[in-house]
Amino acid sequence: MSLNITPPWDDVSNYVDGRWREPSGPDGQDVVDPATGKVISHVGFSSESDVDEAVRAGQEAFETWQSTPVEERIQPLFELKQLLEAHQEELAEVLVREHGKTLAEANGELRRGIENVEVACGIPSMMQAGHLPNAAPDIDETAVRKPLGVFTAITPFNFPAMIPLWFLPYAVATGNAFILKPSEQDPVVTERLFELIDQAGFPDGVVQLVHGSVDTVNALLDHEDVAGASFVGSTPVARKVYERAAKHGKRVQAQGGAKNHIIVTESADLDFAARKTVSSGFACGGERCLANDVVVVEESVYDEFTEHVLESAREQTVGNGLDESTDIGALITPEHEARVRELIATGVKEGAELLLDGRDVSVEGYEDGNFLGPTVFGDVDPDMTIAREEIFGPVIGLLSVADLDEAIETLNRSDFGNAASLFTSSGADARAVRHRADVGNLGVNAGTAAPMAFFHFGGRKESFFGDLHAQGEDMIHFYTDKTIYIERWPNSQA
Ligand code: NAD
Question: Contact at 8 Å (CB) between 62 and 29?
Fold first, then answer.
């Protein structure tokens, strides 16, 4: 079987109780190729009753699934890994057509998603909780982890294939049922993912997909039989989702937006640091929660580093993500492109020096695409809008500081705390940043601080609401609760 990768595509469908169904709500929106501006599909939004149907199917499936032996529960995940690998190229192409990123980036995203499926196959070991014989006289104590029921995840547009997999494999391997509500902006790749899930051998109702927007999310968060919710998206929505789910007594983890910093010290390899800065800021068109777009440089090397950055930034090719020579693909929508342009204008108005202006870019043959070229500001001040607000476009701002102390203070002034990177050859500088930077992910001589799936992923401050993060061991804690068995057998010969 091969996946349908050639648009235009039929309207996307929900996957509920093992069957494909049309969302029945009155609203919906077109799915548009960001590189061509052409409508390639349509997504209908799910109604409250669609959500209720999925939750009921999930509950019914949970009754059996929670006591299915764990070894059996992970078999569909092994199958899913094979299917994802066999269809990775097709999924990547679908992803590029509806998201705009490059094929290399789409393949990288899928690889990172598959990694989570692999890690979740280790649940039989990861889910064990502990046993202590003779914890008290004649008493043995055993902790066990139990799944909780039906979980949901609400995911953003920027990694539509990977982010659902931060949650889905762990939720089901631990014995829960799972309902995904993906972004309405690029839902086709998720539908293709579910075409593979459909073949992987999960019982009906264990893994489900409902499309929609705000009302669909609210129906999931308000439903009394949803045990918990994971959210990834912008900070204002993350805060709302966190509060709404908590109000209903649910477990909730909500990952928000970001404003990440790079620190470059005078001992850094400046050419290497500049190339990593450029790829960190511009990969996926800057539409990444790990994009570092504020670059804080020690003043002794500021001018030299800036030259390296400009040289590397000028080499970036803007174009359709399907073209292998493209480094920077299209932004998700014309509205988002307009917002990034507005932020660039604000940067100029507030006095930053526009060293490289990407606003005039044009891509031959794709005049209706949402393209912006690499944009670099110098002399940025930490109080400027472009130094404080998430831009989510191919824009970086360079900022000069006297020393490492001032660099760390600048980083920690941010409202966000998702990630940061440090370029240095000094172990003492690295140690100072490790101890003092208030961020969830820190790279040292690594431009993009993206943890592998066996480590947790999550930020701090306005970048995260909750306590347990995505991926790895945190997911086991999120998706299970612990019970202690305290046993005494008076006639035992032990
Ligand atoms: P978004 O907040 O607009 O949408 C995310 C999800 O929430 C979508 O599924 C959407 O349908 C739903 N949604 C939107 N408005 C809602 C509302 N008012 N009530 C309930 N649900 C609502 O985010 P986006 O534009 O799709 O994604 C980009 C954002 O996600 C950026 O801010 C980025 O930094 C962030 N992000 C964060 C991480 C992280 O790990 N911290 C990872 C990826 C993306």
Answer: no
Mean pLDDT of the 380-406 span: 98
Our answer on whether the CB atom of 240 is closer than 6 Å to any ligand 1 atom is yes
Domain 260-444 has CATH 3.40.309.10: yes
State residue 1's pLDDT score. Answer: 84
How far is the C-alpha of 87 from the C-alpha of 107, rounded, in Å? 11
Residues 6+ apart with CB under 8 A from 305: 264, 268, 270, 273, 274, 297, 398
Domain with CATH 3.40.605.10 in the chain: 14-256+463-483
Where does the chain hold its CATH 3.40.309.10 domain(s)? 260-444
162-211: pLDDT as tens digits: 999 999 999 999 999 999 999 999 999 999 999 999 999 999 999 999 99
* Residue 459 in contact with ligand 1 by CB distance below 6 A: yes
Task: Tell me what the pLDDT averaged over the chain comes to.
Answer: 97
The answer, yes or no, to whether residue 214 has pLDDT greater than 80, is yes
Asked whether the predicted pLDDT for residue 428 surpasses 80, the reply is: yes
- Reduce the DSSP state of residue 47 to 3 states and report it: coil
Structure tokens belonging to residue 398: 């360079």
* Residue 289 known to be catalytic: yes
Catalytic residue among 289, 318, 328, 475: 289
- CA of 68 from ligand 1 middle (Å) equals 34
Distance from the alpha carbon of residue 97 to the mean position of ligand 1, in angstroms: 20
- Hey, what CATH topology would domain 14-256+463-483 get? Aldehyde Dehydrogenase; Chain A, domain 1 (3.40.605)
Task: Measure 366 CA to ligand 1 centroid, in angstroms.
Answer: 27
Q: Which of 27, 216, 217, when mutated, tests ligand 1's pocket best, judged by the most ligand atoms within 8 Å of its CB?
A: 217
Q: Is 237 in the pocket of ligand 1 (CB under 6 A)?
A: yes
Q: How far is 100 from 172, CA to CA, in rounded Å?
A: 30
E-strand ranges in 167-241 read: 177-181, 207-209, 226-232
